[in-house]
Every structure is written in structure tokens, then in C-alpha cells.
Amino acid sequence: MMYRTILINPKQRNLQRIVWCESEHESPKIYELSTVTYSTVSAPYLAQRTLTQLSMDEEANFPIAASVLRNNLYMDDVLCGAATSEEAIILRQQFKRVLNSAGMELHKLCANHEKLSPDPKQNYNFAFLTEMKTLRVSWKPNLDCFLIKVKVCLDSSYTKRDVLSTIAKIFDPVGLMAPVIFKAKIFLQRLWRSKLTWNDLLPAEEYREWQQFLVSLENINNIEIPRRILDAFPEVIEIHGFADASERCYGAAVYCKSKNLKSETLVRLITSKSRVAPIKSLTIPRLELCAAGLLAKLVKRVVAALQQKTAELYHWSYSMIVLAWLRKEPMDLKDLCSK
Hints:
Blueprint: E1 17-20, E2 29-32, H1 43-57, H2 63-71, E3 73-74, E4 77-78, H3 85-100, E5 132-134, E6 137-140, E7 145-147, H4 160-169, H5 178-193, H6 204-217, E8 224-226, E9 236-245, E10 249-259, E11 265-276, H7 284-306, E12 312-317, H8 320-327, H9 335-338
Parallel strand pairs: 9-12
Antiparallel strand pairs: 1-2, 3-4, 5-6, 6-7, 7-8, 9-10, 10-11
Helix pairs in contact: 1-2, 2-3, 4-5
């Protein structure tokens, strides 16, 4: 729908021609599409650029909505929130006016508060949905929590191709299920070490282990993860990142700790990421250094996404060797350590 509300410059409409013939006895007719057209290479950019320009043009009149339009938009989905229901109502009103100024409408509104329920006159009413998906992530509005959905297919035999296909279906963009996915990655690396081809059946021992993993994987569907990571009115915000490694893997996790004026503390996992140790063996201190590097990148992304300039940052590592390496200049170290 959004594409159809964006007009193409008349001078460039000849690039969107459609040749149409009612019957084989009639001469073909040539039509020119006047709006942004699906499946064209430039369509996503034109839509995004139009909304960006709209936010710039309307920023003086609707500052809150303009900021959301620039920073919380993915194609035609807007994911945003507010500290109170009153602020959210103002945001919704501004957002509707901004879109209406460009001939667009706000559809499919879904919220976790009854005051924000959409107008019943609209064709798209998601107020009574117990679960909805956005960007392939399931969300329960009434409980305000995320769900991870996995479809498990138990079979009498599996190949390495089947294992990789199952791992790829576990969609976890935020990293909330990293420990589960990591276990599958370790198993897949074992298959690579055994030099199985894509269509070779798993050996008996690996088959039993993979079957047990699939049975336990169904329990993921019962996990509910709170969406909110901050207290409603935080006085202190801290970002804590942890890095660690073992012989088989290394990883990093980032938590948010917020405290209000009543000294009530809320700690939530923001994101995590794991890596399987390379086949070429490395010492644990070097893997812990890889984990520290992974953590630094992860925290940088989190800070940019949260836009909390007052948050205090803490990076934690259990390795005294890594901490000593980090205090040195790169030129004083060799090989992997310097990188």
C-alpha cells in the first residue's frame, strides 16, 4: 500500500512501461506506471527515502513522530514505544498527522495498553490478537513479551544437510537463544570434522544426540522473554558486557541494569552472540581475547541502538591475561593478539 501512495517523476515514468494487448487482433497498448512499483530494484530505496524526506519536512511540526520515522522504521513497519500511555497517545496522533500530510494512513496498529487500542472503524484491528509477528519475531501484546517459535520435524534419519537446515530455521536476530543455537553449532562442527558429505546419513551416535537435541528444542516454544529492558523512570542506567571462552567456543552477552528513585533495580539481557572455536586449535587465553573483541563490537552496536548517552558502560572479562594484553599497545603484541 505504501508504494502506491508515492508518485514517480513524470519524466521517468517511461521507464515503467507495460505493454498490454486485449486480444491478438488488437494493437498493443502502452501504459506508464505513475507510482513506485513492486519488484523493481529501486522500489525499497524510493520508499525509504520518501519517508526520510517526510520526517525532515515535518520535524518542526511533529518532532516526536519525525524522530520515530527516521530511527524506528523498517520498510513499512514501525516499532516504537513510550514511557507512559499519555506519551504514546501523543506519538500516535503525531504519527498519523505526519503520514496523512503525505496521503498515507497508519494501519495494523497493535499495542500492549488498552488506551492505545486502534479505532474499531478501521479495517485492520489487531487489538484482540494474543500474538503477532513483526520481522519474523513473535510478540504477545497482552503480556508484552517475545516468543521464539521453532518447528521441529522428527525423522528416522538425518543428513548433514538436514542438520544445517534445522539450525538455519532458528531465527534469533537479537541473540536471546544463543546458548541453544551454540549447542547446534558445536554439533555441526563435529560433522565437518568427521568429513561427512551433505547427503550422508548421520552415524548412530550422532543420530541419537541430534534426536535428543530436537526433542529438547521444542521447549523453546514455551519460553516468554520480557520485551522491556528499562525501568519506566530510570535514574541510573548501566550497560554491562561479559566475555568468556572455553576450548570449544567463545561468546559475549550484554545486560542492561536500570535503577529508579526508589532504588528498585531491573536487570535484563539485551543481546548475546556466540562463536564456535576454529578447527585450528587456539589456546584458551587467545579465545578469551577473541571474546573480548566480540564484546567490544557488540556493546558498540547496543549503545548506538539504545541511544542512551547517560548510560555507564562496563566491560567484564574473567581472564587476567586478556586484561593485561588489552593494556598494551598493539605493536607490542604478535599475530592474533595484535589484531
